[in-house]
Amino acid sequence: MDNITDVLIDKIKEKSNPAVVGLDPQLSFIPDCVKESSYKQFGKTAKGASEAIFEFNKYVIDVIAPYVPAVKPQIAMYEQFGAHGIDAFVRTVQFAKERGLVVIGDVKRGDIASTAKCYSDGHIGRVDIDGESVSVYDEDFITINPYLGYDSVEPYLSNLEKYGKGLFVLVKTSNPNSGEIQDLYTSGIAVHEKVGELVANWGKTSIGRYGYSAIGAVVGATHRTQAENLRALMPSTFFLVPGYGAQGATAEDIAVCFKNGIGAIVNSSRGIIAAHTSRKYARFAGEFFTRSVLQAVIDMREDLRGIVWN
Question: In 61, 121, 139, 201, which residue has its Cα 20 to 30 A from 160's Cα atom?
């Protein structure tokens, strides 16, 4: 079975684009022409909101599928609507995979071993129901929080090998206050660097043909110096890089995460799916919003290509 990071890199090379689109839909991003149909059928309810989100996602996925290798749905945007939202999340994952995209479930789970096993089996493994093995969420990768230590990570590892799945472990996040904890020094090393060393070590047994592990790291582009240090510290770790676009990071900031044109995938969420709300793409508002999604994806690809692929 192929290392899932190899599969992702193959798709990046095929599309000449190291971008992942974050499917983080908020109702304020969704054009009225999409919402009205769902509200007419289900009302302004959790069901109505969830159906609007799923319909919006389908439009977005259909437009971006020829141009990007992967999508990253953020589960909180769906969980807030309860069971209907979770159903929209599951259907979004399935729809994206049917369109040939790698799916990174941005779930950021982190808990004790017994709970982690449930998260692992549900999201990247299979759940045993009285002897029947059932796939539930079926993402290709998920994000996890390692701050409970190895016993909270270990339950995921068997499913990586058994089902050909992957992880992206939070190491240095893109939010402004991440340094309050992640940049603290202990025994002469920053916390994020120590976590980076652990992640690199956990991934040593799952190195693929491109030289990268199935256990990747979330490394924010908004902290360029730390990202550069982590790349040197973690040469066989593939990076998921948030912070591009709406959070302020540029292609030049992101370049330090790559080695010879590969080594990372760069996330943009609002910058793509909410492009029609920006002044730059305002001419594509309303029922023409998918044109803004397409143009924003193409613009991001060209921006990244100028730095990464030279």
Answer: 61
